[in-house]
Design goal:
Blueprint: H1 2-12, H2 15-47, H3 54-64, H4 66-94, H5 114-125, H6 129-145, H7 149-166, H8 169-186, H9 190-207, H10 210-226, H11 230-244, H12 250-270, H13 274-291, H14 294-297, H15 300-310, H16 314-331, H17 334-351, H18 354-370
């Protein structure tokens, strides 16, 4: 008997049946209101819609149809009760209050590349070194270009461990000098950077990796420049240049000497020596042309413009920045586009052209907000 009663209740509380009855009751009630109101309205129109007796006519109609109104009220009550029954039925079926389920908010990772570091760590701990370094090669440079410096340091620490455990000295030197060295420079962690770079240079000298020894010394010179120790910077650059000049691979030799000359020009500009800087820039331009790398040669214009600004040669500076802007836009080098826009803004400020100055400042700021620009030691 108990089971039959439960089945009867379940049948009565079927959601399709309850919904059908409640909606049918609502429709009938609404239809009744429309018909009755239309009857009153039509009668009013026939008599005179603007007549002051229209309200009296409506009241008279209400008095005459009092019993019908009772039916109308009962219809409203019945419909309301049907909605209540439907709500209670849903509660009985689920055993809980019929409320919408809570919305689950899935937290988003603050670092979208964190999963890469976790995956790399797993590969390292499982001794899958070949696979690990394929992941490292794919993401290290990308993280640098995208400005994800903290993540690059984390990946670098993992790579240092993997290189040491697998006995890959070349990898270890590279990681120490670039990933844990120069990346920490960009983060302004100079002590951590110097420690990593010096360990890398020491190992490179001991094992005959001259290219990396020269690069490490160039990085240490950059740190000295940022710390305003310009004499130490030029000394380290001279040491780096001595090693780079003896590299047997002409391509590597020109690449390293080009970078050294650019760093030298930057340091000389910070020392406010525009004439010496311009001489170094000319040597940089020659070496960059020899390398055949147009993306490297395009850098000559902005730094030359900075040297002209320091020498108060405003027209020469403007010409250099205009050429540099055109070349950088053609090559797609956003960092150099920004530098040339900034240089032109400075020129137009000097010439008193506020509109042109504002235009170039706005373009530089827009690019800076949209484009991750790799860290670079500026000439001022």
């Amino acid at each position: 008997m108990e089971t039959n009663a439960r089945e009867l209740i379940d049948e009565f509380l079927r959601p399709d049946l309850i919904g059908l009855l409640s909606r049918a009751g609502a429709c009938v009630t609404l239809l009744w209101i429309c018909v009755q109101f239309a009857d009153v309205a039509l009668d009013g129109l026939q008599k005179d819609l603007l007549s002051p007796t229209l309200l009296e006519e409506i009241m008279r109609w209400g008095n005459e149809n009092l019993r019908t109104y009772k039916v109308f009220i009962l219809g409203i009550v019945a419909t309301t009760l049907m909605f209540i029954v439907e709500f209670l039925a849903a509660s009985i079926r689920t055993g809980t209050r019929a409320v919408p389920p809570p919305v689950t908010v899935i937290p988003q990772p603050t670092d979208p590349y964190a999963v890469i570091v976790d995956y790399a760590n797993d590969l390292n701990h499982q001794n899958h070194f070949g696979h690990f370094f394929r992941v490292y090669d794919a993401f290290s440079r990308h993280l640098w270009l995208e400005g994800c410096l903290e993540t690059r340091v984390k990946l670098g620490k993992c790579a240092e461990e993997a290189a040491a455990r697998s006995g890959d000295d070349a990898r270890l030197i590279q990681v120490l000098i670039d990933d844990l060295g120069w990346t920490n420079v960009a983060l302004r962690r100079y002590d951590a950077a110097k420690d990593a770079i010096r360990r890398g240079v020491e190992k490179a000298n001991a094992l005959g990796f001259s290219f990396w020894a020269a690069k490490g010394l160039r990085h240490l010179a950059g740190i000295a420049t940022l710390e305003h120790n310009h004499d130490e910077s030029l000394k380290l650059l001279a040491e780096s240049e001595g090693i780079a000049g003896a590299l047997p691979d002409s391509g590597k030799r020109v690449e390293m000497l080009t970078g050294i000359e650019y760093a030298k020009a930057t340091t000389l500009l910070r020392q406010r020596k525009p004439s010496e800087a311009l001489a170094s820039i000319e040597r940089f331009s020659t070496l960059a042309s020899q390398s055949g790398d147009k993306t490297r040669h395009v850098r000559v214009f902005a730094i030359k413009g900075q040297a002209y600004l320091l020498a108060n040669k405003w027209s020469d500076a403007k010409e250099a920045f205009i050429k540099g802007l055109k070349a950088a836009e053609e090559m797609g080098r956003a960092d150099e586009v920004i530098r040339n826009h900034r240089g032109l803004a400075e020129c137009y400020r000097h010439f008193g052209d506020k509109d042109q100055m504002a235009k170039h400042v706005a373009k530089a700021e827009k690019l800076e907000s949209e484009t991750p620009v790799p860290f670079e030691i500026e000439a001022k």
